[in-house]
Design a protein that fits this description.
By secondary structure, the protein is of the alpha/beta class. The protein is built from 14 helices and twelve strands. Helix 3 runs parallel beside helix 4, helix 4 crosses helix 6 and helix 8 packs across helix 12. It is globular, with a radius of gyration of 21 Å.
Amino acid sequence: MKVLMVGVDQKVVGGMLTVSENYLKSKRFRTQTNLKYISTATRGSIPIKLLKFAGAMIRIIGLILTDKTDIVHVHMAERGSVFRKGIVIVIAKALGAKTVIHMHAGPIEEWYSRQRLPVRTLTAWIFCQADRMLVLGKNWVPFMERVMGEKNRKKVLVLHNAVHTPSENLYNNEGKNLLFYGMLTKQKGIEDLLDAFSNILDEIPEDICLMLYGDDVEGNVRERIHARSLETRVKYCGWLEKGEREKCFSETILHVLPSYSEGLPMAILETMSYGIPNVSTEVGSISEVVEDSKNGRLIQPGDVSKLSLVMKEMILCPETRKEYSDNAFMKIRNEFSFPVHLRHLISIYEDLLKAE
């Protein structure tokens, strides 16, 4: 089996990159699949992005022809990613390779519904060219089946994101930090989080701080903090580097991600693998991993008053946090560990190669 995986480069930080890096780090998976990886997307100006894509396409075509690639597995998001990766899918299929779309975009349904008919038609056609469409959770299946049609419904399969899991629960219930780990955008709920935290400052211990890690895509997170006079209690720390992750998690009692749309966030899986309870929203496939009042808490997106209340309750109740922590750790180890994920993906590849 020879697999070519197509995704983003290391400048495009986020869940898609984390997933790709996990595959590349697995020696067993690389050996089983003779894995090659080519990135088609980067950060930068439009000319830089176009040059990156053109160069990547030349490499992709050359590799498929010379290496006799069996499967081309593309990691796809919404917007331009659909059409860039669509070109990869069409060319790979024309060159005789089997094709897999791995859909990561949380807001794909919302994005699709906003497009005009020609764009929706082209998007549906691209999706249908793939031999398999992998989605991150069960809740995405009806949308994909509707877009791809009855003829292609069997192509749609669920492949949950997964993480490497520590051998034991490393949660520190004596920590002092709340954590937000992801893109610092309105869509991820950063404004709601800052408002909710501001609401409870007088009701929680003075040494509790909110740490923001992630890419400040909109470039105004410090202004948002200043506008609420939160400089002494909220710290923006940039992207969370791998070498800093264990220390950060060891000081965190709660991860909060009040997103308006999601797939299955790697940030939730990573923090839960360390036993950190999550407060998040009932969007995407989050409810398939965060179980309300069992291993974390779920609210509706945009409900700032409920977010404030839940955060305060979790901060002030270490016994509840410990119970949720143990349940969160076991949930990830039993259902979302990387070995389980890899076995499932390999079986998908094998079934695809057996199919006519």
